[in-house]
Each structure stands twice: as structure tokens, then as C-alpha cells.
Amino acid sequence: MSAVTTAAAAAAKAANGKFRLRWPHYLLIASGLLVLLSLVRVIDDAEPVTSSGTVSAALRLAVPIFLAGLGGLWSERSGVINIGLEGMMILGTWTGAWAGYQWGPWIGVLAGIIGGALGGLLHAIATVSFGVDHIVSGVAINILGLGLTQFLAGLIFDKGEAKALGGGPRQSPPVDPIATLTLPGLSGGKIGDWQSPDWLGSLEGRHWFLLSDIAGIVRGLTSDMSLLTLVALLLVPLSFLILWRTPFGLRIRSCGEDPYAAESLGVQVYRMKYAAVVISGAFSGLAGAFLVTVAAPLYQDGQTNGRGFIGLAAMIFGNWRPGGLAAGSLLFGYTDAMNVRGGGGAVHALLLFVAVLLIGVAVWQALRANRLRAEVVTDLGRREVRNAYLGAVLSLVAAAGLLTWFLLSEVVPGELVSFTPHLTTLLVLALASQRLRMPAANGLQYRRGEAR
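The chain above was modelled as a monomer; its predicted structure follows.
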């Protein structure tokens, strides 16, 4: 019976033309990308591409994007679109800095969570209770968060003791940083009074193919990591376990798929939506608190710099799942770190990297089109074949353009370097759009007892 079931599942998979990736496949893909990145680093002599400094900066820049995206994931899994992540982050930065400079960074983190949660509560009241359009409410939250924090900064930080400590109308007094960890024995950490040798740093400095790249990446992930960064990384498996392995998470996801069916089974839909949106705001507030306790030691006007929107893009790239969201956040953080650490020379090496990836995409699309052409008989299938061929051609054209740019230049202009994270956002969403599936009832208005 088991063999028959397995054969039937394999046949169904072949009939649908889909192949489900498992963890071994993801590890194989990651290994191939690492080899390609190392090869590009050697060819273009761009050491910052895999240096420990770039990896450490990428992780630090990715965490607030991930936390904001995680907030969006919780909200949208319950069926409430949340584009107010940016405003909730801004509330988290101000409340985190206000409490942090007075009572310490961890109290600031807690205050940032509360500030973001209040923004989430306001969004829940507007969308769940009063039925306000989710987009309109999110835009209002963004405007309110920006205006309110600017007003409060001038009212509180520019007077009295706060001003004497370095505050002003556009910034707070400094906040003490959160402690960091370094792995002893490999990355030069300390155990008591003993300073361990930096084996990974020594190996990274030899600039060997692949080995030095692996050493740089591992050293970047194990050196001077903030405790709050470690907490953020633990939220990936925790969110997955809660949303996909607990009755509470199942109720939240059922509200995002079909709230009326969930209501018929006894789920308190309003309560679940409120809980999810408030948790969403809390994660966004935590992202804001991270900015004022780890990324920079104070609140500054405009320091979120659109990270809430990039977090929303990372959530969509990750197909509304924590693992994919984490991967998308690391991608955006890495491109931002290349801008900060490597500049035009390092981004120039990425031109070759992306060109090779696009050639691979073109080959995959062409093979997929050939396979589909032998299977389909409907007009919809023929359209899918044409789209696959078109995708292959466009990928080849883009690869040829990037390869030409790489060969005819030595650095990327600074204006384009600063735009790299936002350009990456657009490209990733364009390439990933065909495989996305958001919750079925996301953004739809729900009223108790109105099932049709």
C-alpha cells in the first residue's frame, strides 16, 4: 500500500509539472551560490564580497527588515494587510530611545515593542472593528507615526535633561548599546582572562578560493553578535512552530484563508485578528528598538529609511513563510552592506554574479518550456510555454547587458550603489511573482454572521 501511495504521489507531481524543494535541495543551491560568489570574488579581486565585515554588517542590516517583515507575516496570515509597518517601526524607534536613554537598552527594547504594539492595536481597531480599507489605514499609520514622533522629539528631547545629554529636535540622547557575543576558540573570543586565537580571521586573510570565503562568512556570523540579533534569529523557528504547529497558529491562519469557515468551527475571528495585528505591531516596534539599541545608539528622525516597506517586500518574496522571509531579508541586508562596506568596486563584482545567475535562469526557463510544450494541449498551457520562452529570452538579454557592463567598467557609480538595495527589491519581486500565493482572504472585509 505504501509503494502504491508513493507511486501515485510521484505521478501526481509529474502530472502537475511541479517539483517541491526540500532542505537538501536548498543546501545544494546555497553551496552552488557560495562557490559562484567565491569565483566572482577571485576574478574581480573584490575581497569585501565575502569578508567577515560585510557579513556582519549584512546581518545587522537584515535584522530590522526581517522583524518588520515578520510583523507583516503575522498580520497577513490572519487576513489583515499591514502596510503600516514603517509607521509602527518609527513608533518603536522613538519609544525605544525615550525609555532606553533613561533606564537602559533592554527597557528601551520593551518600550519599543509596546510602542509598535499600540500602532498595531490602532490598525486592528480601524480595519477589524470599523472595516476601514486596510491600505488606507496602513497609510494613515505611517503618516501618524512620522508626525507624532517628530512632534514628541521636539517636545521632550529638546528640553531639560534630555537636551543636556545630547538630545535635540531631531534626535534623542545616546542609548547604551546592548552587549555582544563572540564565539571563543574560532573568532578570537575570550574565556575569562584567556584570549583565544582568531583562527577564522587568519584563514580569511589568506584569500584562498572558497576556504577563505567560508571562514569570512562564519567569522562574520560569530563575531560581535548582539544579543538582540540572537533573539531575532530565534524568532524564525519560533514563529514557524507557533503558526504551523499549534492550535493558536492554526486559528490565525484559518482566519486568513476563510474567516467564515473558521467562524462556523467556533473560532473567535475578531479575537484572532486582533491578536495577530497587535503581535505584528510588536514585531515592528522591536525592529525600531533594534535600530536605536544596536544599529545606532540613538533615535534620529528618518532613521527607518523605508525598511518597513522593504520588510513587506521580503515577506512577499518569502511567500508569507518565516524561512523565505529570513532569506529575503538577508538578501536585502547583504546588498545594503555591499553599499556600506564595499562601495562601487564590490558592487561591480556582483554584476558578474547576477549575469551568471540570469544565464542559469534562462537555461531553466528554456528547459521548462520544452518540457511543457511536449505535455500541454490547452490554450492556457500554450500561453505558459510562450511565457517561459519569453522569460528565457529576457533573462539572456539582461545577462548580456550586465556582462557587457562588467567588462567595460571597473566600478559602479556611487549613485547606483546607493540604489542597489531598492533595485534588488524590485528585481526579486518581479522574478518571484509567478510562484507567490498569499492567504486567500487577505485584505477582505469580515463581518460576524454574514457568511454567504
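The CA atoms of residues 22 and 28 lie 10 Å apart.
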